[in-house]
């Protein structure tokens, strides 16, 4: 991994730690709420194993997870479409992407995630298009996100869902989500305790 990417990831990890400990004053809606470093490493590794080329990310935040993914997907000349509604976070993400010179790999879609995904789902070009998806957005709509995205995922495509175990206040929502997935015969899924808990799902048909 290039030093420039490592440096920015390290900076963001420090910032995330400061925000979580409330040692810096950031409005609640502008906090990073980023994935953990271990989850970033997991995403990067799966992307490499998959040789993924087309990725969808729901929840850009300030770009920490996006950078972990872009570093791997660049090897396949791939592209990432990432969705975020918060303009302050988008501004920070763009600055971070410029620092590591990956801006040409990433298309940011600004707006409500449900509306954007619904629009994608109407376009034939996105059917079976994404070979990797990261869902890291509001937990109340998690099943709706998944149902809209699933037809756009290629066979053997991977969907990672963050926050399956932490924060604990979402644990019941996420348990319901995991059980919902396990009832679907068109996929295989497991819950990993890496990071904040990751649901790792493969579309098998």
TrEMBL record:
Q: Where are the transmembrane segments?
A: none
Keywords on this record? Methyltransferase, S-adenosyl-L-methionine, Transferase
Q: Which GO terms describe its biological process?
A: methylation
Whether Methyltransferase counts among this entry's keywords is yes
Signal peptide per UniProt: none
Which GO molecular function entries does the Swiss-Prot or TrEMBL record give?
A: O-methyltransferase activity; S-adenosylmethionine-dependent methyltransferase activity
Nucleotide-binding in keyword set: no
Pfam families hit by this protein? Methyltransf_3 (PF01596)
Q: Which InterPro entries match?
A: Cation-dep_OMT, SAM-dependent_MTases_sf, SAM_O-MeTrfase
PANTHER family documented for this protein: CAFFEOYL-COA O-METHYLTRANSFERASE 3-RELATED, O-METHYLTRANSFERASE-RELATED
Protein name from the UniProt record: O-methyltransferase
């Amino acid at each position: 991994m290039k030093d420039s990417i490592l440096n920015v990831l390290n900076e963001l990890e420090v910032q995330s730690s400061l925000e979580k400990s409330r040692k810096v004053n950031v409005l609640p809606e502008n906090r990073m709420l980023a994935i953990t470093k271990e989850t970033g490493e997991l995403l990067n590794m799966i992307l490499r194993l998959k040789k993924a080329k087309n990725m969808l990310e729901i929840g850009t935040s300030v770009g920490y997870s996006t950078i972990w993914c872009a570093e791997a997907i660049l090897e396949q000349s791939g592209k990432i479409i990432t969705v975020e509604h918060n303009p302050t976070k988008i501004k920070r993400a763009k600055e971070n992407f410029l620092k590591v010179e990956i801006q040409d790999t990433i298309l940011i879609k600004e707006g409500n995630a449900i509306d954007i995904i619904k629009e994608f789902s109407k376009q034939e070009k996105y059917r079976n298009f994404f070979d990797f998806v990261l869902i890291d957005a509001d937990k109340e709509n998690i099943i709706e996100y998944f149902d809209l995205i699933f037809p756009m995922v290629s066979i053997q495509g991977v969907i990672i869902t963050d926050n399956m175990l932490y924060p604990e206040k979402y644990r019941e929502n996420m348990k319901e989500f995991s059980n919902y997935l396990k009832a679907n015969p068109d996929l295989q899924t497991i819950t990993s305790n890496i990071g904040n808990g990751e649901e790792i799902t493969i579309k098998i048909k």
